Amino acid sequence: MADTVPWRPKAGEIPTDPGVYRWRDENGRVLYVGKAKNLRARLSNYFAPLPTLHERTRRMVLTARSVEWTTVGSEIEALQLEYTWIKEFDPPFNVKFRDDKSYPYMAITLGDEAPRVMVTRNRRIKGAKYFGPYPKIWVVHDTIDLMIKVFPIRTCSDSSYKRAMQTGKPCFPGQIGKCGGPCSQKVTIEEHRALVEEFVRFMSSYDRRVITHLRQRMGASADAMQYEQAAKYRDQVEALEAVLEKSAVVLRDSVDLDLFGIAEDELAAAVQLFSVRGGRIRGVRGWVVDKELDIATGDLVEQIVQGNYAAGDEPPREVVVPELPEDAEALQEWLSQRRGGRGTKLSTAQRGDRAGLARTAKQNAAQALMLYKTKRSADYTTRSAALADIQEALGMTEAPLRMECYDISHLQGTNVVASMVVFEDGLPRKDQYRRYTIAETTDDTDSMYQVLSRRLARLDEDAAVPDVPDVTTDDVVEGSKPTKRFAYRPQLLIVDGGQPQVQAAKRAMDEAGVHDIALVGIAKRLEELWLPDDDFPVILPRNSEALFLVQRIRDEAHRFAITHQRTRRKRDVRSQLSEIPGLGPSRVAALLKHFGSVARLRAATAEEIGVVPGIGPATAAAVVAKLAQAPTSASAPASASAPGSASAPGSASAPGSASAPGSASAPGSASAPGSASAPDGAAPVRDERSVVVVPDVTDDGPELPA
Asked: What is the DSSP string of 476-510?
């Protein structure tokens, strides 16, 4: 492979001015549009030696046949030109916005003779004042129903209004009390306009003084014994209070901002936008974008913010994002221009209420990303296409209807465990999941070799088919319930990792004499697939359903392994501490809660342990002595044997198996690429996405001997 592409322009030919660049293929199609403060510095990154580039960036560079640029006067002009070209050319390697749905708004048609309030998804009504967006259309209808009890403004359609004004007969909504416009013959156009202005003023500020005035009128009417009028004011107060309750107070009354929460992985990102006006959440909007190239979070934030406000939405006084882009000043100036030069602040949430709201937005984004990925793999047609694509990409003779994925999890070389998850027809079979405990190992590749060897040794022990009575005779044939074993041979084995893990699994397959099952490894950083003995990985299209399915299998195996590893750590330390006289379950729980992790508890001194409520000096010294004697690695539990089978040392443990104190410990090993190590006793999370996206199920499958 050459160091770079042969058509690379000379460095002196590329200007150092700010500008926008376009990559084109041999047919002249625009592949990617980007901007830069310094065109020469930015483009030189793409022309670095090809092996050093990200896999998908390298694919884009190798696909391209030319690059062209346009210099501009400032970073603001570059930002605007980049967005224009992305919309014009729709480049395949730029971020793809998958938000194809519009959101409902409450609109007041101030440009009409008699303005009306309505629910609409059209943001281009001339002269209209908009409130929202709202997450659900029924929320808008509920708000309007409550508001017109206090501000009875027009709700009928234009045709109904014209017909009522011509005939003098109120429109149907007016007859049933749902429309308070001039067509109802109760108010004039001028009086109605005043009501509309009060409606808009309250919705814009949520001013509680309106409620205060209504309460005063209610009290005055009650004192004057005008009880019907007082009841009317009472109902109006309750309606406004209900509107305020539906809009949660999250910040000060004077705060107007839009807050973006983003959850992302290598392939996609989910966005949640919280619109806060007057300190209240006025609307929530979410969408998903597909990422073709591996871009930084700051660059992703820039494209999301620009895409949101370039379509016509006016930015508020402040926009809060998870991470500031590199050219945050230019983006902030662009937002200010979109706001008519009144100024918009671009910031991140560091602490306080804003940080709490940002965490909520990110949590919602993580759930949206999980739902998006689940929906993509739930459809039968989509799953079938994904399995066919995997078959073609890996050169298999048949579609992988049964796939098994393996992952290794440990904490700095200790508590080494493994997981096996099973997907049939593209869906998880949790009753087929297996957990493995690895007593002694040297590194991740050795662990993978052990697990695959144990699995392949029982490859042909398929579940026995129960006897079925013969309905053609009167004889009764006794049925037998099959034992919990593996259903049938898989067509594809997936290991979490790159070439080292794949080679270890291949060695186990060769020794077991298994040559009719495909094997592949998935490396999480670049999401590429590694086949045995191949020097280059298989790159699935970034937006393909096949890659989503393989990624989901890998994430599920990772989650299942981590859950097992955490359970063993907690069980081991609790069993050790419970042997200390005077240390019951409540004090053990207090110790673990105080230090937060097993590693911190092991590193603590007697004085530090003694500050925990209920732990005296003698007990603290006993805890230190006990933990110093206990091995730091996972005790290998004595696993329960399957019926009729002998339990081999280090086999997958059965449910409820007890740890054997003093068992052989796994030596600390250097983590191979893809290992699940974590410092200071933190959870061994290699891919945080898998923990956020996939719910933690504690009883997914039996823990049986493999």
From this structure: -----PPPS-B-S--SEEEEESSHHHHHHHHHHHH
| Mean pLDDT of the 274-283 span | 74
List % helix, strand, coil for the chain (3-state, nearest 5).
Answer: 40, 15, 40
Token look-up 């796939």 returns: 403
Residue (of 432, 420, 600, 585) closest to 496 by Cα position:
420
What is the H or E stretch that residue 68 is in? strand 66-71
User: Which comes out higher in pLDDT, residue 521 or 222?
Assistant: 521
The pTM of the full predicted model, rounded to 2 decimals, is 0.44
The whole-number pLDDT of residue 197 equals 85
Classify the C-alpha dihedral 406-412-417-423 as positive or negative: negative
Task: Give dist(CA 387, CA 570) in Å, integer.
Answer: 39
Token pair 């098994």 is at which residue? 404
User: What's 54's DSSP letter?
Assistant: -
Average pLDDT (314-336) is 88
- Nearest CA among 446, 655, 458 for reference residue 571: 655
Torsional class of 487: left (φ above 0), alpha (ψ -120 to 50), beta (otherwise): alpha
Query: CB-based contacts of 395: which residues, under 8 Å, 6+ apart?
Result: none
Percent of the chain with pLDDT over 90: 7
DSSP conformation class of 94: S
**Phi, psi angle pair for 20, to nearest 5°:** -125, 140
Residues 6+ apart with CB under 8 A from 16: 38, 39, 40, 41
pLDDT averaged over the chain? 75
Cα 629–Cα 630–Cα 634 angle in degrees, nearest 5: 160
Range 365-382 average pLDDT: 74
Angstrom CA distances, 41 to 11, 48, 60, 174, 218, stand at 9, 11, 18, 67, 70
d(CA 504, CA 533): 11
pLDDT of residue 656: 36
> What pLDDT, on a 0 to 100 scale, did the predictor assign at position 509?
92
* Inter-residue contact 391 to 540 (CB < 8 Å): no
Query: Cα(147)–Cα(315) distance, rounded to whole angstroms?
Result: 26
Return phi, psi of residue 402, to 5°: -120, 120
CB 362 within 8 A of CB 261: yes
Q: In a 3-state reduction of DSSP, which class is residue 351?
A: coil
Taking CA atoms, 371 is separated from 226, 364, 374, in Å, by 55, 11, 5
Residue 466 DSSP symbol: P
* Nearest by Cα to 633 from 602, 604, 659, 666: 666
